[in-house]
Amino acid sequence: MSWWENAVVYQIYPRSFADGNGDGEGDLAGARTRLPYLADLGVDALWLSPFYPSPMKDSGYDVADYCDVDPRFGTLGDFDALVAEATELGLRVIVDIVPNHCSTEHPLFQTALAAGPGSPERELFFFRDEPNNWPSYFGGSAWTQVADGQYYLHLFDSSQPDWNWRHPAVAQLFEDILRFWLDRGAAGFRIDVV
Questions:
Q1: I need a surface site. Which of 66, 78, 91, 175 has the fewest CB within 10 A?
Q2: Taking CA 138 as the corner, what is the angle to CA 177 and CA 127, rounded to the nearest 5 degrees?
Q3: pLDDT at residue number 41
Q4: Quick check: 98 and 53 in contact, CB under 8 A?
Q5: What is the dihedral of CA 56, 60, 61, 67, to 10 degrees?
Q6: Which residues contact 162 (CB under 8 A, 6 or more apart)?
Q7: Would you say 18 and 26 are in contact if contact means Cβ atoms under 8 Å apart?
Q8: Which helix (H) or strand (E) holds 107?
Q9: Which CATH number fits domain 3-99+168-191: 3.20.20.80, 2.40.110.10, 3.20.20.70, 1.20.140.10?
Q10: What does the alpha-carbon distance between residue 171 and residue 180 come to, in Å, rounded to a whole number?
Q11: pTM, two decimal places
Q12: From CA 7, how far away is CA 11, in angstroms rounded?
């Protein structure tokens, strides 16, 4: 039986869990101070909700950079220290991954906007000249028009353009992202909106 099949997993939303630097907002340093308590509770793994750079229009699920830590939560060094201490206490760390969409502030989406209609950069997302009638899960249309007249798909908030998983570069991007976190000691992933 794999460790995760009967593990007790504790979700940590970094922004509200524990404040390690006294600024009134939770962070990875704060979460680290609570690790002994979680181990004493019998927790086997921590599931870290998104802690990536984000404009926070959807609680961090609008990711602007999948391979970094939002400064309000700390640094990659803080993540590494949390994983190291968790490992010493027998806890595994599970990282939340959001593969359906990113933030409109993600560099690849910004590059796609700048590149214009018909460009290879836009193929990483769903840009169309005419939208269909799909609704967003958050209400309203799932399509938002950009300055050049095209529309991009966002099944959730308009600040979260959907990745085009039919494009091989998207699959490679996420393979690289997963490898990045595994190499830093993540034990696995919780996949949001698969």
A1: 175
A2: 60
A3: 97
A4: no
A5: 120
A6: 100, 101, 125, 126, 152, 153, 154, 155
A7: yes
A8: helix 107-115
A9: 3.20.20.80
A10: 14
A11: 0.95
A12: 12
